[in-house]
Design brief:
The structure is a homotrimer of 247-residue chains. Chain A has 247 residues and is an alpha+beta fold. Chain A folds into two domains: 114 residues, DNA Polymerase III, Chain A, domain 2; 112 residues, Box (Proliferating Cell Nuclear Antigen). Chain A has four helices and 18 strands. In chain A, the strands form three sheets. In chain A, strands 6-2-3-4-18-17-16-10-14 form a nine-stranded antiparallel beta sheet. Chain A has a five-stranded antiparallel beta sheet with strand order 5-1-7-8-9. A four-stranded antiparallel beta sheet of chain A has the order 13-12-11-15. The radius of gyration of chain A is 19 Å and the shape is elongated. Chains B and C meet through helix 2 and strand 9 of B and helix 3 and strand 13 of C.
């Protein structure tokens, strides 16, 4: 049993944060809300999200898994007007999700959850440093780096002062971003420096740009963990594997 | 003799309502305004429009037919700024239409009216039911149906209450729209249900979306008639043949 | 030595006015500001610009030439938010231009100035007539002419009254623009009539459309000279060779 009402744009933003990395997912539905963990086809990036019951206008659910094609779900949600609510209702017998938008009722065929790639094991990482900055600022930096290269170094340094930095070097031009701790929204100082693929960061950056604040946890040649809330009770979490830095 | 002044956007909206179905048309000009009847190349959809003299800032005309390439006319009208008037003046001798937009004077070559496909005979149909709804609402429903299928059922039902409905079924997903009579702007109850090509409805929906209210006349496996005004004195009328519903 | 701070949008608009005609240019930097003269690859159009020191928030420069890829420079400037300043600083030793946008620091590799096409000799022309009109009006006329033809006649006439005119004739349709002197922002009456390629005028028109007023100097079968300021101290100048008018 699952029936829920939520602002269509809120749900769509959360869906799009995932669909930039993976198309078909298994939602774990329970009285604690909707959760999802998925890994991209190349095993480079992991995404998890959680929508708490409080983020819904109405929420009633028994425990269960449903398999969803996120591209089609996002497409349906895009029909909503700004501020419009969407009603989700599970038709268990027929393996359908009924999506109601005012007078419109859309029937989305579900995917057999067992046909979807297994939920990844989230590695237990102790990342030594973190910074917190506005989502739009990080998005802008990622887009700037795309102009120069296809990979980027993210790091935390204490030289000459505690700061977050980003470096992108192309064949011709290069780019450096330096934000000292006093201009960050928060920081756990430390030493971190890892190289990441801009392809993945770009895919993530659209959702990141919608967040008021984003927390980046980093280490030396370690994965990057990105935390942010899209709205009250809608939490997204990315984990991105580092690339090996070549001299 | 023909000379007229009209708001450029009003004229363009009317032209675009036709040009989505047919490119070259014959305008019948008379002291009663401008009229047009045309049928699409596949004989599936018919469009007629009428611009009354009252819709013009200035209107003076003797009876006559002119052949016009609507794509070029719409292209010229697109040069106007919002709220700008356009002056139309027939140069009969040279088979040209002079189109004035402030300091700009565009000379549009006319097409020999006899080279244009004959005006269709508008069938005399007695359609048993109709509904009236806001243009944007119908447009939105058509766009939603496009996500699912390439054809759609439009109907009027009295079960469980008087209502307008739309159904689209794709290979995977399906969509239903139901608007009870109390949420319609007007209705003549009855039983209607016909299948239509979404290609044509999509072409029509851009103009439909600009109308405050649209009247749909329907029957069982009968053509759909669509009536709407784009502004005072600018009336559009579509007639769309049904497709045969396959079991 | 060169260090300067300027509104990023101002600089970008000036760069784009040039980059529509030529990609790689040599900036002449001195205490008098930044100057540039360049000719398009086909030798049909010439562009020069000058940014006075007063247009900068900060300006300090020794005499020198730098070679710049305008497409990359414009791309970097496009990262700026509205109203954001950009800092330019020359790293002479490494042949780099450091471009600072808040926390971002972009390093642009310069081109060897000697590898860039020689500065054109600006011909000394005595053009008998000129008109001054709003940039957006001229841009709109150029875009209208593009709908009809790939070349256009620009002229000044005294018949039946002093006016600026533009004529475009296509295979089917034609277009005339006539602006009498009383509707112009300024005029030096005379007789002028020359044919120009719309390709070049279109490339110029994007920058022209941003200018409050544009001065066009013309003669009979003579080049067209276009003068305008994008903002205080930012002056652009185009010179466009005429085409031979065929009877």
């Amino acid at each position: 049993m699952f029936k829920a009402v939520i602002d269509a744009e809120t749900l769509r933003d959360a869906i799009d944060a995932v669909s930039s990395l993976v198309d078909e997912v298994r939602f774990a539905i329970s009285e604690n809300g909707i959760e999802l963990k998925a890994v991209d086809p190349a095993n480079v990036a992991m995404v998890s999200f959680r929508i708490d019951p409080e983020a819904f206008e109405y929420f009633e659910a028994a425990q269960g898994d449903i398999g969803v094609d996120l591209v089609r779900l996002s497409d349906v949600l895009s029909m909503a007007d700004r501020g419009e609510n969407v009603t989700l209702e599970l038709d268990e017998e027929n393996h359908k999700l009924k999506i109601g938008l005012n007078a419109l009722s859309y029937t989305l065929s579900l995917i057999d959850p067992s046909a979807i790639r297994k939920e990844p094991r989230v590695p237990d990482l102790d990342l030594p440093a973190h910074v917190i900055l506005p989502g739009p600022q990080l998005r802008k930096a990622i887009r700037a780096a795309e102009k120069v290269s296809d990979h980027v170094i993210l790091g935390v340094s204490d030289d000459p002062e505690d700061m977050f930095y980003m470096e992108a070097s192309g064949d011709i031009d290069s780019l450096i971003l330096k934000i000292p701790s006093r201009e960050l929204l928060g920081m756990k100082p430390g030493i971190a420096r890892s190289l990441f693929s801009l392809d993945y960061l770009s895919d993530m950056s659209k959702a990141i740009g919608k967040a008021q604040e984003v927390k980046l946890e980093m280490g030396v040649d370690y994965p990057l963990r990105v935390y942010f809330s899209l709205s009250q009770g809608v939490d997204i979490n990315y984990l991105l594997a580092p690339r090996i830095e070549q001299e």
